[in-house]
Structure formats: structure tokens, C-alpha cells
Specification:
seven-stranded mixed beta sheet, Beta_Casp, hydrolase, hydrolase activity, RMMBL, MBL
Amino acid sequence: VKEAEESLKYFKPVLYGQKIKLNHEVTLRFRDAGHILGSSIIELWIKEDSKKTKLVFSGDLGRRDRPILRDPSLIDEADYLIVESTYGNKLLHHSEDDTKELISIINTTVKRGGNVVIPSFAIERAQDIIYELNKYYTAYIKTEDQDFLSVPVYVDSPLTVSATEIFLRNPDCFDKDTLKLINIGNNPLDFRNLKFTRSVEESKQINFSKESKVIISASGMCTAGRIKHHLKHNLWRKESSIVFVGYQANGTLGRRIKEGEKMVKIFGEEIQVNAKICSLEGFSGHADKEGIIRWIKSFKNRPKKIFVVHGEEEATEEISRKIEEELKIKIHIPELGETLSIEGESVLPGGRLEIDRRGKELREIEENIEKVKSI
């Protein structure tokens, strides 16, 4: 923590759209990526031997028409583009459809006497869910079954609580619909029965309570944090529901539960999965296949070459084929550690970085084994 706090002195806030000259050769600009609060597309101008080349990196590209944040900025031109591909092989539902499905899951689960547990990323995804539930807790949307109005909703994550406070301090990043709610006195990130918990004791009390409830907790992929405690108390209950609202990376606890494993280990204990498992990908903050294509099409002067990154193999390959077929732009899918050199109009292979993908714990185990062998 001390090292993290020490690093803050090297941070410097900048505005979206502000050109920053790093030196005589390099200029950059951050544009709104619409993914999470503060997420950015990077435009990079590099000058070499009086020739200027423009690189654009999409970062995590957001979806159009999502709540709270503005749509991703459209870019005029690029010589080379580096684009993400998280959902490069999927078409996602509209979030309004998934919101109605979430309300239905809450009502059905409560009638069974269970809890609804939502693993959620602390930044953006949790706030999106709060925003959507807020619309149902007010007069803006009438629903046939309003039993859920009496159901407590707990946001049990200190990081999520802090992130929500940061959201409310930065309304300049909000879209028009969210600002309209604020202007009429409706806090879009609050509603009746919404409760934020910070302390460990408050978190424990959630699972001691017998009443049905909604629990939104981090981490979003169930790899750490308080969500693991809530899963331990609810996965075995056939009355409860687990609702995934974000991407689950390969190998994570969230991915294993989502893909149907019937027994998982949490805190060293084998837990049987009896709860109903649901996935609502319409809440995702990543652009899907059509969203990525639409964003690239918006370039007035399209790139000569596109590098497709940040996706599992099936996703990167499918979006690459679609770009080549539909936009007629050359594609390259870099391998981990691969380096490339842009010289004139050519992209040439460079060296390769050796990257150790083993975890720290695994490396320590292997080192200890070697020590034992040497005795």
C-alpha cells in the first residue's frame, strides 16, 4: 500500500481532448473511451525524420447507449490502430432487456426465499446496476410485479463505495440522460432500500440476516474480495441466484461457476453449486463485435493496418476476419511478447520479450523445490 501511495506523486490529471506534447517528437491526446469513468482512447503522434505517424490505441472500448457515461469518442484518422477484442465474437443484448431480466430474477428468487448475489467490478459495472435499479425504484418505469421494491440491496465492497462517491464528484463525464436525472433532483446512484457497507462487521451481518436480499460485491470475477464469502454462503442454496454481469476470464472462479462446475473450492472448503446461475452480458462495458466494427468505420481516414489485441483466441480471430472482409484493412494479431517496428510504410518483425506468466506463488514453489534438490 505504501508503494502504491508513493506512486501517486507521479500522476498528473489531464482533460479529455487536451493535446500533450511530451517532447519534440511525441504528442498525445486522451479521448473518452466510454468504458469506465476516466477510461481513454489514446491518440499518439510520432515525428521521425520530418515524417509524422499517428497511432491510435482503443484501450477498453465502451458500448454506445450505455447508462451514465458518454459514448466512445469517434476518431478522425490513424495510420495504425491497436484495438481490443474482448467481445469480438459476440453480439450483446441491449442493457434494457437485461435489466428487465434482472428484475425478474430478483422477484423469482425472493419468492423462493433466496438471495441474489451479483459479482461485480467495483468501477462502472456496480454503478450501472445501481443506475438501472434506480429507474425501477422511481416512477420512470412501471413494472407489473413490484415485489422487489421492498427487497434490500446491499453494495458490499469498500472499493465500490469509494468508486461510487468518485462518480458523484465527476458529473462532467456523465451522458445527457444522467445529467437530466440530476437536474430534476433524482440521484441516479441512490434509491430506497440501497445500503452501502464498508466495515467487516457490516459485511458479516448480511449473511447472518434471514431476509431475502440482493448483494452486489467485488471482485467481478470472484478471484478475491468479499464476494467469495457471499458465494460460500449462497452457492449451496437452491433458493439463491448468482448473476454474472461482466466478463469472466478463463481460469477464474467466476468462469468456472458460469460454465457449470458443480463443485468449487472457496477458502479451502468444497462448496456444491446448487444455486441458479444466470448471465446478463448486456451490462458489459465492452463493445461487442458490431460495436467495434461501427467504431472503426467512423474513422474518416482509416488506418493502413490494425493490430487486434486484448481478447481470447476465438474473439481476436473472428473480429479480425470481419474487419478484413468488411473493411478491407490488413490485420495482425500480435503474440505475447512480440515486438514490431514501423519503418516507412512497412511493419517489420522485431525481437521477442521473454515474459514469465507464472504466478509469484508458483515461482516460489519451484524455487523451493530446486533448493531441496540441491541439499
